[in-house]
Design a protein that fits this description.
Blueprint: E1 2-5, E2 14-17, E3 23-24, H1 29-40, E4 43-44, E5 47-52, E6 59-64, E7 68-69, H2 73-80, E8 84-85, E9 94-96, E10 106-108
């Protein structure tokens, strides 16, 4: 039996999942799906920042448009760390399309004029 803390909502249910994928401890159905996903295919959304080259000491926040496999986080971060962008930026601008073929784009989450 594996124990998890659900991160889908602020409640943070303490879940238990057995080898037959039976989940207990959840207060909503989303906890069941979260636990099963964590055991079979854990994914995460990356949020970070990249340098703005034409603004001194400025960073712009970015995130993945879709969750990526947990095992690919460091590879994706290596690619993101190479990125630089020029202002202006607009929320929703795509910096990298389909990063590493994972069906997730790197998108801007902050406007910079």
């Amino acid at each position: 039996m594996k124990e998890l803390t659900c991160i889908i909502c602020p409640r943070g249910c303490h879940l238990k999942i057995d080898d037959d994928m039976k989940v207990t401890g959840n207060f909503c159905p989303r906890g069941v799906q979260y636990a099963i996903n964590e055991m079979t295919n854990p994914v995460r959304t990356i949020t970070t920042s990249i340098r703005v080259t034409n603004r001194e000491d400025t960073l712009v926040s970015v995130k993945t448009s879709n969750p990526i496999p947990k095992g690919k986080i460091f590879e994706v971060m290596d690619e993101i760390n190479k990125l630089k962008i020029n202002a202006p930026t607009k929320i929703g601008d795509v910096v990298v399309k389909n990063i590493l073929g994972l069906d997730s784009d790197i998108i801007i989450t902050k406007n910079i004029d």
